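A brief tutorial aside. Many learners find it easier to grasp structure tokens once they have seen a single protein encoded end to end. The record that follows does exactly this for DUF4281 domain-containing protein. Read the sequence first, then the structure, and try to relate runs of similar tokens to stretches of the chain.
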Amino acid sequence: MTATIVFSLANILVLPMWVLMIFLPKWRPTRFLIDNKIIPIVLSGIYVFYILQALISNGMMDFGSLKSVMELFTIENAALAGWIHYLAFDLLIGMWMIDQNKDLNLHQVLMAPCLFLTFMFGPLGFLLFMILKVLKSNPV
């Protein structure tokens, strides 16, 4: 299977999970997937395979400068592993936010943008959630 196909499959794999988390976060199948971290575990396995391929082919990776990190993203297996890393960790953050919201109890109208922005822009959605969490926990 080519890296291009794996890239597409990984994107397809996370999309339904994000839709479920945004629109049906309390639905039993959604909760099962969140509680057992099924999709992040699958992505982690794929990540390990491609990061090992990159290491075997190109040796140890240098994260010591922006230039060296940019060079890593010119290596197909390393770029794919990096993308899968983003997908897995953004998804884990989204799952964490939903778990946090069990106690926080933000309305889904507020959670949906946090989750969508986490899906699209990672830290932006996380930051919005944390701001809402502080505001809800410490009312003025």
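Self-check: The chain is about 85% helix and 0% strand. If you spotted this yourself, you are ready for the next section.
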